[in-house]
Design goal:
six-stranded mixed β-sheet, 70 strands, about 40% strand, globular
């Protein structure tokens, strides 16, 4: 054998030794009874967040509840605020200011608030009332309210750390007779159990003297049990009862969480490795779709969920604004969905318990570029499992409710980037799971054998990512096809490898996705998307297709075969700059691009499309996920972003999958998401429509009828649709009966302003509909406009003789006043329009800029090139310099990412100092920059590139505690006359190739492109 064969065998043996220990635990994990993936256990909740930008008066929130009208209230260290479906509003009542420790809704639907300044207050739906000694409450220090089911009904308790317990009876507060038996130990919490320990018990928790209980009307007794540690005091006590299994949950400062049931104690803590913090505030229980229940707890280090006794923690990585969670509450909506509200120290979060369509499944790779590949399959016993490949964090496998991680740190993987996971047949026709890495390595996994490396002919180096593979049977043989990121396409058949490269390929050929097609006549074809167009294989050779078949963009990403409504085979192609393009391949020899009549995607960089069994099509982009639903021969579009629960808006190419249940999985820069469209409950509930404020000439008025006195002019009515999801899709319309004949258009405005009206009787109709089209019960608001004294009947009789003169004068005066008010209104509108235009200009500028370096971003560079080929500069000679920071990974590794960011900013500033004013400097990606120069020839651009190289080298990087390191760059220069889009693409490619030559030449140099016509 040659040296190469011997080296490959040695590598294979090393990998087999490394992976052999993994086969046993994987096989053991797969030996349990089969079951499907439990998304509730696997996925994190999808959070919608609200901050001070949404009207919250304070970033720190403490407690939150939904009242019987559907209004959400929040307590902060400074008072109360409520949510109108669009914004949060602080409660303007000085009497209710101060720290709000708890909000509580009792069985009758009354909302209560415990505050440091006022003690206890209740809300009757319109006004707040502070409880006092007149109501029997002799102490204004109330920490918590609890309702128990005893004595044949509900009983409301107030816990005062100073005065003990009070209960409410016949609308009065009574001090509990057993207070004298309790120690003066600052009791903070209370709970009730029906049959735990065989008797009805009331439990009370204190700060300094542990847990107490009493049975019925008996004496209070101190509770103790072997192993139970009361720590530094009890924070919260919760009773749960599921399927007759009653349990008492106890949160203890610095001791963690305890559960007491008929089986004894179960303890979770930081010391046991199960909790992120031993400081827990409150807890709430919610049912789950499988008939079980979950307990949620707020803590200093995340939102805790306990499900099947397993702890999961959700924090900023999952979309929460803060890790410090002060309160959590659950509200059962009218459509039977449990809405979870979370109060944090940086705003509020909302989620739907077991009802959210989107779930965060894994945060693998989130420190770099997230999840690069995903696969859902089943093991040999039929157990469903999940494979996740990442950038930097290796591979994860979820099976039987457990995660297994494989990475380079323990020698399990040779590369930390897993770019491809596919299930396909080997050359013997046996199914296996295949892994591709960022260095181009290939691994095979079988249930009975574990991982094994596969020898491949392409070079294993950075950037040689293995993107895709497929297997197919041809003439009785199984052949495998592989797509690489730098070396094109390879085929493996009968143990022989063959490399393919179409004649029209120029430079590096990056192939993203492979697809097999069999026509109705049994002819087999292969298709591939690449950075230079669509490739087709007829069984003998690959041919490159592009603008000749109508493609608007040849820099392609994903490709998927999705038949149209008539069953014609159609390729859906993702692209870098033109979204989704569809190609009809009914005749593979003559493919044709279809008209671009799809709904516009949220971003022109579209990774590709996948269709689920219901015909819904998912399009992943750099700005969210678009869902296209067939509708009367066209498609309805819905876009999902971080506001809908995505952990990150930017998807990764080739990281999408539709499983056997029709669920859509996608890898993003922040982790792995799953969308289960049929998981959420249908929403047919009409949402409450509520009047928020009625004002006349900016003065609030109350009452069931609005009376506008003479001299008053402007009526404003604010209203709110109390929807618990997708509030930005709520719509309103109004009409004034007696003045207009029909309602106006549906708009997002939740207010109506009415100017001066003639005297008379009117009725304002306010209608609303939610995101699902449910109409709410309309509001009918009677309005009376009173006449002036001179408009009354007796005045008309009195001044009948002078009617002509008086009426004429009054009308002239009245018209002048109306015009003045109209002019003032027009001025306000003009001023607001100017503000909006200014804001839009600022947003446009931000969209063009790279957030880190301040220079233009890649999108603006592409737009500048496109404008140059289509606008007044068409035909201009342009030069393009690609600049790449040498060995930038070493800067991050040796000095840290903050130093790396500083280095990128320094390089950008150095480049900018060398460029003329009309040059376009953009961050092309990562550590790569691009300079676009108009009316510049190649020698001039070369000189400028050399100047840039020297200027960058003059500014070394100083790392803390590290030696000084110089920064160098490699530059590639290209020049071309821009007559069309093809010239722009060639210019980009030539500059990229020239930069590659500079890298190959040893870096820290400039190379010019060899011009090709």
């Amino acid at each position: 054998m040659g040296k190469r064969s011997g080296w490959l065998i040695q590598l294979a043996m090393t990998a087999l030794v490394a992976f052999a220990p993994l086969a046993a635990p994987l096989q053991a994990a797969m030996a349990a009874p089969s079951r499907s993936l439990d998304l509730f256990d696997l996925g994190a909740p999808a959070f919608t967040t609200f901050t001070t930008r949404d009207g919250l008066p304070d970033p720190v929130t403490v407690t939150i509840r939904t009242d019987r009208q559907g209004v959400v209230w929040v307590g902060t260290p400074h008072g109360l605020a409520w949510y109108d479906g669009k914004r949060w509003h602080p409660l303007d009542d000085p009497a209710l200011a101060g720290y709000i420790s708890q909000l509580f809704v009792d069985d009758a639907g009354t909302l209560w608030a415990c505050g440091s300044n006022f003690g206890l207050a209740r809300y009757d739906g319109r006004h707040w009332h502070i409880e006092s000694a007149d109501d029997g409450l002799t102490n204004t220090h109330v920490r918590r309210l609890v309702e128990t089911a005893d004595h044949g009904g509900k009983r409301l308790w107030a816990v005062s750390p100073d005065a003990g317990l009070f209960y409410r009876e016949q609308n009065r507060w009574l001090a509990d007779p057993g207070n004298a038996q309790l120690p003066r130990a600052r009791f903070l919490t209370l709970a009730h159990t029906d049959h735990l320990f065989g008797h009805e018990r009331l439990w009370a928790g204190s700060v300094s003297d542990g847990l107490w209980y009493r049975e019925g009307d008996g004496p209070w007794q101190h509770f103790s049990a072997a192993g139970f540690d009361a720590g530094n005091g009890l924070a919260y006590v919760l009773t749960t009862n599921h399927d007759g299994r009653e349990a008492l949950w106890v949160s203890v400062f610095n001791s963690g969480l305890w559960r007491l049931d008929k089986h004894g104690w179960r303890h979770w803590s930081v010391e046991s490795g199960e909790l992120p913090s031993d400081v827990l505030y409150n807890m709430v229980e919610t049912p789950t779709a499988d008939g079980g229940d979950a307990v949620w707890a707020s803590s200093r280090n995340g939102l805790i969920r306990i499900y099947h006794d397993q702890v999961q923690v959700f924090d900023r990585r999952h979309g929460l604004q803060s890790n410090a969670i002060r309160g959590v509450s659950a509200w059962r909506s009218p459509n039977d969905t449990y809405v979870l509200w979370v109060a944090t120290e940086d705003g509020i979060a909302r989620s739907f318990v077991d009802g959210s369509k989107w779930k965060t499944v894994s945060l693998l790779g989130s420190s770099q570029t997230g999840v690069l590949s995903v696969l859902v399959d089943a093991d040999a016993q039929g157990n469903e499992r999940l494979w996740v490949g990442s950038d930097g964090d290796g591979l994860a496998l979820y099976t039987k409710g457990e995660w297994h991680y494989f990475n380079t740190s323990h020698g399990q993987l040779a590369d930390s980037d897993v770019s491809m996971i596919a299930r396909a047949d080997d050359l013997q026709g046996r199914s296996a799971v295949w892994l591709g890495t960022g260095w181009g390595r290939l691994l095979r996994f079988r249930d009975e054998a574990g991982f094994a490396p596969v020898t491949t002919p392409w070079p294993h180096q950075p950037g040689q990512r293995l993107n895709d593979m497929l297997s197919r049977r041809i003439d009785g043989h199984v052949e495998q096809w592989f797509a690489t990121d730098a070396s094109g396409i390879y085929r493996r058949r009968d143990g022989i490898w063959t490399s393919f490269r179409p004649p029209r390929v120029v430079g590096s050929w990056s192939v993203v996705k492979l697809l097999a097609q069999t026509t109705a006549y049994g002819k087999s074809w292969l298709w591939a998307s690449s950075n230079q167009g669509l490739a087709r294989f007829d069984g003998k050779q690959w041919e490159l297709l592009g603008r000749d078949i109508g493609l608007p963009d040849v820099d392609l990403l994903g490709v998927q075969l999705i038949p149209d409504a008539r069953g014609r085979p159609v390729l859906w192609l993702g692209s870098v700059r033109h979204g989704i393009t569809r190609v009809d391949i009914s005749d593979p020899l003559h493919p044709r691009a279809l008209p671009a009549d799809l709904p516009a995607p949220p971003d022109l960089t579209a990774d590709g499309a996948l269709a689920d069994p219901g015909g819904r099509i998912y399009v992943c982009t750099d700005s969210g996920v678009q869902l296209l639903t067939p509708d009367a021969g066209r498609y309805r579009s819905q876009v999902f972003t971080v506001r809908d629960g995505l952990v990150n808006n930017e998807c990764n190419p080739n990281a999408q999958f539709i499983d056997a249940h029709g669920r859509f999985w996608t890898g993003t820069l922040g982790g792995l998401m799953v969308h289960a469209p049929d998981r959420a409950k249908a929403d047919h509930a009409a949402k409450p429509l509520k009047l928020v404020r009625v004002s006349v000439d900016d003065r609030a008025v109350e009452g069931d009828r609005i009376v506008i006195a003479p001299g008053q002019h402007n009526l404003r009515v604010d209203f709110a649709l109390l929807s618990w999801q997708h509030e930005d899709e709520s719509r309103f319309r109004t009409w004034l009966e007696g003045f207009s004949k029909s309602p106006g258009a549906w708009t997002a405005d939740n207010f109506r302003e009415i100017g001066t009206l003639p005297p008379g009787e009117y009725t304002l109709h306010v209608e609303a509909r939610d995101y699902a089209g449910n109409l709410s019960t309309p509001i009918l608001l009677p309005v009376t406009v009173e006449p002036w004294w001179w408009q009354r009947g007796w005045a008309w009789l009195l001044f009948a003789a002078l009617a002509g003169i008086v009426v004429h004068a009054l009308l002239r005066w009245h018209t002048h006043a109306l015009r003045r008010r109209q002019h003032a209104l027009e001025q306000r509108i003009d001023a607001r329009t100017a503000q909006l235009n200014s804001a839009n200009r600022q947003l446009l500028e931000l969209a063009r800029r790279d957030a880190l370096t301040g220079v233009f971003n890649r999108r603006w560079l592409m737009e500048a090139l496109q404008q140059a080929t289509a606008g007044e500069r068409r035909g201009v000679t342009a030069a393009l310099i690609f600049i790449d920071v040498d060995h930038f990974k070493l800067v991050n590794d040796n000095f840290g990412h903050l130093a790396g960011d500083h280095a990128l900013r320094s390089v950008a500033e150095a480049i900018g100092r060398c460029l003329p004013d009309d040059a376009v400097l953009a961050r092309y990606g990562g550590e790569e920059f691009a300079c676009l120069l108009f009316n510049t020839d190649l020698p001039t651009a070369h000189v400028l590139a050399e100047k840039i190289r020297l200027e960058v080298a003059r500014h070394p990087l100083h790392g803390p505690g590290k030696s000084v390191r110089g920064i160098t760059v490699s530059a590639g220069v290209a020049c071309r006359k821009l007559d069309g889009e093809d010239d722009a693409e060639i210019l980009l490619r030539e500059a990229d190739d020239a930069q590659y030559e500079a890298k190959r030449a040893g870096r820290n140099c400039v190379r010019d492109a060899t011009h090709k016509a």
